[in-house]
Amino acid sequence: MEAPVSVELLEVLGTEARFHGPDLSRRGLDGLLTTEPEDEIRRIRVIIANKRPTYEIALPSDQPPVLSNLIPLHYLLETLGACEDFAVKFIPTTSWLWGVGSAFRRTWMPKSMQGDGLQQSTVSSIEGFFRYSTIDFGSECRVRVWFRHNLVEGSSTYIIYHCPERIQEKINNKIKDIAASKGNDLMVIDYIIVNEVAGSWHGKIHDVYNQLLAYEHRDISDFYNNAPLDRTASDLHDLAQTIHVLQEEIHGILQQIDSLIEIHAAVVGDPHIFDCLANLRSRTDKWYRWLRSFRERTNIRIQLCFHLATQRDNQTNIQIAQFTSNISEQTRKDSSAMIT
């Protein structure tokens, strides 16, 4: 069953930033989503949809309680006219294998008749879906983002499900900045989200790097004489698995950044946002290559453990053979003494 969500609405109308919520009622949200401003252009609209405790409205004892902020996600998607394929992936009750990945589609409109009688088309809007993995206070969480960029009106609409507080705070501040400016606003929110998502993994990457250095800085004699090699090898296997997961997560973020760069080219967004995305991609790609190096270096340490264990076993076998030889020699001497 689809979980109800608490909804906040952030928007920029002309040069005014407006914040509605948290815990907007269904009636209040209906009015905000279905009413178009008369004198001002809606430049950005961001809907934050998070799971929160619901509140009961006081009613007579003979009537059942009503949940005041029970707003289904599918209502938001249907009201905003989201593509059905994206809506199915966005609803978190869908299988986790189905609701992954990123996608976008273009909507076209006729442009004008050319001299040769052919009619050209131009992109009127771009709609898309992203599913991000982020580390929030040490635990991994999934953030789903649906968006539509209306190129005719120059406006953007977002639904962000399971939005971490730090990302929402960044968006709140940016909404105020956008209202005070008159620049190109398309894809500003996209960059904030993907930049925060990528940055959330920095601490985890730093942790595995420190763990790897601790093993690399240990002297081989310490491995050989003191360390229980089976336990060390097991810990290194766990570290290699963590690095592998991190590497794939960072690779997924790289693909999402590439998609955003492609969308930016289609919407002809702010050149500054393109520069920021390009810089973010370069940094994230560096992290990806570092993780690949960390993984290979961890495997080298695992192989070292195996080699040391093999040497230790060989020495044990040599000692056993020497001991057996000594016993045989002593037995031979005893037998010779008994004969004489």
Characteristic terms for this protein:
elongated, 9 strands, seven-stranded mixed sheet, two-stranded antiparallel ribbon, 53% helix, 9 helices, alpha+beta, 340 residues
Write a structural description.
By secondary structure, the protein is an alpha+beta fold. It has nine helices and nine strands. The strands form two sheets. Strands 2-1-3-9-8-7-6 form a seven-stranded mixed sheet, sandwiched between helices. Strands 4-5 form a two-stranded antiparallel ribbon. The radius of gyration is 31 Å and the shape is elongated. About 0% of the residues have low confidence.
Oligomer designation: single chain
Number of helices in the DSSP assignment: 9
Q: N-to-C SSE series?
A: EEHEEEHHEEEEHHHHHH
- Count the beta strands: 9
* Shape annotation: elongated
Q: DSSP strand (E) fraction?
A: 15-25%
User: Which value, in Å, is the CA radius of gyration?
Assistant: 31 Å
The percent of residues in helical segments reads: 40-55%
Distance between the termini: 94 Å
Question: Strand count, sense and closure of the main sheet?
Answer: 7 strands, mixed
The neighbouring-strand order within the major sheet is: 2-1-3-9-8-7-6
The assigned structural class equals alpha+beta
